[in-house]
């Protein structure tokens, strides 16, 4: 019997977790010491594999295909992620948040906990709350915050290591979320999904960072919607603002979309013609992930993860790029060494790390342009 | 206890398999009726996830991370593959073909059988033999064939549905393999990994097809090394030759590399600067997979699968493109419908299938060219 | 005897010019009525043809190959330019500004006047002053302005229609030039060669526009260094500033570089790897010129010309795009009609103007990227 | 009075020509000694400048704008062309071949002769005959050859140095032309405008070369329709055929289209979406021209010229690349030195010839693909 195939054993699992050595370092301790490598986006990965639906992006896979969810968590851990986020994205959009009578959130929590427990190194488990339809519908702060509180409850009950507010278009809504998450007593990481032009209400990245920090977030930054280069540009703006406001004890986080979006409109991938089914040509290589991690670290970002599109090879590359900053060696690296040194004989130019790090990979697509026009709505 | 986590139960598993309903249709029956959708390449997928090493590409994952191998099989089945190939690629390069005392081939066979058994539809399981170092070293036909016979033994013992000879640079070696595989009494699918310029000994695609057919292969074609467009071009040449030689009762198979290679040199991806770590920009979209499947079917190819780089979304798209030719609906499609109809509202151009099928996706890489120079060896 | 081949007849020519009907409208009258189409850059065109040296860009061609200079003027007029600028760019860098005893400036003035005189429509002739080395060397305002005055003298003596201050990296130097040019009593058009990031002293486009306007320029804008899209973006910034400052009686001018430079560094083409010998792939099509002219006019720009890289086909396209705004039909258009209507039969998609106006032309360069890194200096 | 502006002096001009030193070497002598640099296409250049109409491509400019035609000839000579071809392309499509009573062919001949006479080095003048509508209409050999004879008459009367048969889609028609041209007693250069797939009747490049050689052409090859790389590929096929047939005393000629066409359909640029108004992005750089000339010479081609799209900078680059093979230094090179050495200071990477010769220039067009689909006819 295994959560891979059934959820009846969830209680038992959690008992096991309770007995885990409690001496693992928390998020803030780790951030104080150096860089923390995050994971990639669960729901996007599930869609690619046929376990979720594009557009809806609800996490029924946690109940319907737990083995797929569990294996994705394992892949992230194997490749060096120090954190697992539950596969609960937009679970609130599922009817009653259950599938065949099983709570999706409970199932998802159990899977993340199981993967963490299996790992040879101590892994942090985080739960996240995301933007609500309620806010867009104009509901009051009380109503919106009640919803956040309801979501938070799962993570509190499971004694998660920290909590995340993410995927917010409105920094104002994110602030409400942060206020609620603070109630848990856990460290709070809060991100908006914006580019350098700011949020849906025209709050600039600088303003967003200050608002989230002042609302009490321990870590602030951006996630999703824009590729790594755009996200780093946005975070750099946040950094300057925090510094000027003498709020630079607040850590920075970045969890970009795993695809290059130099031509994204103000709402990021949502307005791109290739989203969601034809983004593939834009996907980051492991080299892109390597360089992204190096740049993020150089910029002073401490929480360096990914979002939709980041898979094992990206996390591995980030982990290997920043081994000196994390003090950790990913399981895959212990087994095989750093990927950059593992291919080809000496008389082949591919044996040289420079070959890879300075490469501008060809696209193999002579009938594709580099950038495209944004979606036109009729 | 579960093969996900242990292999002690292998015997028991096989007993279960023995008791499976034997009324599933075999490969040749299916090919006679219509198109058969193959799976994607296991070892490449394992490398992307950190469970294999680029360059070596040996399948120790079958023992070290069986849950990863099993889950990949499941992903293929979930997305519509009718065939599972064992994760045994280049197992002969492992020392004694064991890892920690467990036979990799045995473990890999058990995983493919388990995934097939779990499936709601009858799935064919195939084992493959590939090129040997012995041939390149100039060993005799007897020695090389003995090696093929040794590999074949695993599949015979496990009563596999059919056998495959694949990844051959020399059609002459492939012929020797076909002769051995024929001894099993199982259907034999044989492919060379060549482009339109022919094999390593300058045998043209036409000659390769005829030689494989005359050696007794039931299905002939190409796999790996070149992207879908190049493979289809090569198979078209094979088709004409078989027709002219009145050998068109032999079925055609194509299992391309999942990346576009319009600029590949004669040895395919092996000579490309981006191989293996920077191929990502070239990866097929699910649209490419859709169009590839349609074209392959139009050309008369009956066995339409993939090789390295094909993942769930590609298999799904091929399955959905050819539903009318296979008479099967993939599990993912039963659950969610065809992907092409599932995104966006009517006032968004992305709600229109034409938007996707006619798209030339932008690459998001303004500093990348479409094609590159081949590797220079020093 | 003809100025094509000798300059001894210059006096006589000028007498002819004196007898030209004086009822042609001046620059400001034309700008008040609508759009004025400028010409393209003379010295770049001379270099392409082998009559000038890249890097130096001095106008010895006016004496050494007057027929080439004259013919280029004619080409601009034939294609719809209403203005001819003399081929005097950087004449001050020539030793004593003479070639074989002939004054380059005198020769260049005669050629522009001759081409204007020949034209069937009244053409304006303009002389320009450009940045001096003196300014960069830290010379005083008096010294720098004395140099401008010396240059201006040629144009005053030849009774030119208006004067231009252009190719300035420092708006402060451009202001000094404007002050001198105002002394002529002629209309003054003043441009800086900057992008949206501003001039070499970090004056923003907005500040540059205001300074030039306040110094007395009748027309302000940008020229050269950046391609059409970048120039229009810069001019849009200038426009807003002039409007806010209630200086919108000052006309706007734009004379871009004729090549696309989306990846230009702050100093424009000067810092691009392809400059000057490999810019060809970036050259504007006549369609680009058409769309550029339409956009410039829509933005409210009245003086719409080109700089380096603009040749006959571009000027024609701008003239044809804005026929309704200029009230003029170019000689080439009178002879052949608008180019957009002249190719192909009805059953060919190229017979449709939409085919051309919506086209994103392929580059034919599969080994080229869209953008490049800037020059690295050792 | 000057042919720049009037043609009444044509007789007188020709008298002057008659008195030219007759010791200039003829085409065959030059080819025997080394490489001969040709010129570029006249009619395409005239269209770009507004003196001809796209699609029609008739040479009325020779009468309407003789100064433009003359100046283009001069540009080619100045940049190193050793040959001038008359601007008579498709003159037969003009009504009665006159414009305002003046014979276009006479005017065009006079202009080429004048430009040759002016030159400091001895320049060869060549007249060409091109495909007729008569052939396509099915007229007899007699009728078609009578038309060629009529065209040839102009060149014979003007005592041209050699004659060219070019722009033939059907090698059979080209053979008829060669037979007629041979009657002149002048050297005959004959090209077809085909790619590697052969002519409109499926004669392969090899067959075309043999047929032209056997019809008596002294020089055979290809011109126009395809870019330089494609043309060189085709000529290489011709070369092998001539060698095998022991006809390698026949010289090879190549005069490509000046734009890259890796994606051209079988009829070359005629079937390309960008033809004729949006080819600009594909235009050869002077570096491309340099490398093209080197490759052509290495392949053994002796007559190396250009066709539509080649302008001064390309001819210069070809001349400078092959100075050692021609024994000539172009006037532009005498004046300024080789372009490749003339830009930038030592601390700028652009001072290094390698910078230019190894460059893959960026296109500046992030919304353009490298290749495009061919024209669809309705």
Task: Return the string of H and E elements of chain A.
Answer: HHEHHHEEEHEHHEHEHEHEHEHHHH
Poorly predicted sequence stretches spanning 5 or more consecutive residues of chain A: 1-22
- Identify the most extensive interface between protein chains: A-B, 78 and 78 residues
Largest sheet of chain A, in brief, is:
8 strands, parallel
**Oligomer type:** homotetramer
Q: Please give the number of β-strands of chain A.
A: 10
Count helical runs of chain A.
Answer: 16
Helicity range of the residues of chain A?
40-55%
Fourth-level CATH superfamily of chain A: Homocysteine-binding-like domain
Mean pLDDT of chain A: 92
Question: Can you walk through the features of this model?
Answer:
Four copies of one chain form a homotetramer. With 378 residues, the first copy, chain A, is of the alpha/beta class. Chain A has a single domain, classed as Homocysteine-binding-like domain (TIM Barrel), CATH 3.20.20. Chain A is 41% helix and 11% strand. The first copy, chain A, contains 16 helices and ten strands. Chain A has helices at 10-18, 27-33, 42-48, 61-64, 66-78, 104-118, 133-136, 141-157, 171-182, 205-214, 228-244, 286-299, 312-321, 323-326, 331-336, 353-357, and strands spanning 36-37, 83-85, 98-99, 102-103, 124-130, 162-168, 188-192, 219-223, 251-255, 303-304. In chain A, the strands form two sheets. In chain A, strands 1-10-9-8-7-6-5-2 form an eight-stranded parallel β-sheet. In chain A, strands 3-4 form a two-stranded antiparallel ribbon. In chain A, a hairpin with a 2-residue loop joins strand 3 (98-99) and strand 4. The longest helix of chain A has 17 residues, at 141-157. Chain A starts with 9 loop residues before the first helix and ends in a 21-residue tail after the last helix. Chains A and B meet through helix 5, helix 13 and helix 15 of A and helix 5, helix 13 and helix 15 of B.
């Amino acid at each position: 019997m295994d959560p891979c195939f059934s959820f009846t054993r969830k209680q038992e699992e959690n008992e096991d977790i309770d007995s885990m050595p409690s001496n693992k370092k928390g998020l803030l301790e780790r951030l104080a010491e150096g860089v923390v490598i995050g994971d990639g986006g669960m729901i996007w990965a599930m869609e690619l594999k046929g376990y979720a639906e594009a557009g809806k992006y609800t996490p029924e896979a946690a109940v319907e295909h737990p083995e797929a969810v569990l294996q994705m968590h394992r892949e992230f851990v194997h490749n060096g992620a120090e954190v697992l986020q539950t596969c609960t994205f937009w679970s609130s959009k599922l009817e009653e948040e259950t599938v065949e009578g099983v709570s999706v959130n409970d199932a998802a929590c159990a899977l993340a906990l199981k993967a963490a427990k299996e790992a040879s190194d101590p892994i942090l488990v985080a739960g996240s709350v995301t933007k609500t339809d309620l806010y867009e519908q104009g509901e009051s702060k009380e109503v919106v915050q009640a919803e956040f509180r309801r979501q938070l409850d799962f993570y509190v009950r499971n004694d998660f290591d920290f909590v995340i507010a993410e995927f917010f278009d409105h920094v104002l809504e994110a602030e409400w979320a942060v206020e609620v998450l603070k109630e848990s007593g856990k460290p709070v990481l809060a991100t908006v999904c914006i580019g350098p032009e700011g949020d849906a209400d025209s709050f600039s990245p600088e303003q967003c960072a200050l608002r989230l920090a002042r609302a009490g977030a321990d870590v602030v930054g951006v996630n999703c919607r824009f590729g790594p280069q755009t996200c780093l540009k946005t975070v750099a703006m946040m950094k300057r603002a925090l510094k000027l406001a003498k709020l630079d004890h607040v850590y920075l986080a970045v969890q970009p979309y795993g695809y290059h979006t130099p031509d994204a409109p103000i709402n990021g991938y949502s307005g791109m013609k290739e989203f969601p089914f034809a983004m593939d040509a834009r996907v980051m290589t492991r080299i892109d992930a390597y360089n992204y991690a190096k740049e993020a670290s150089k910029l002073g970002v401490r929480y360096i993860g990914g979002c939709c599109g980041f898979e094992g090879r990206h996390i591995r590359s980030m982990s290997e790029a920043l081994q000196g900053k994390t003090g950790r060696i990913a399981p895959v690296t212990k087994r095989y060494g750093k990927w950059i040194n593992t291919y080809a004989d000496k008389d082949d130019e591919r044996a040289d790390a420079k070959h890879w790090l300075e490469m501008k990979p060809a696209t193999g697509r002579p009938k594709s342009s580099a950038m495209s026009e944004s979606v036109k709505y009729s």
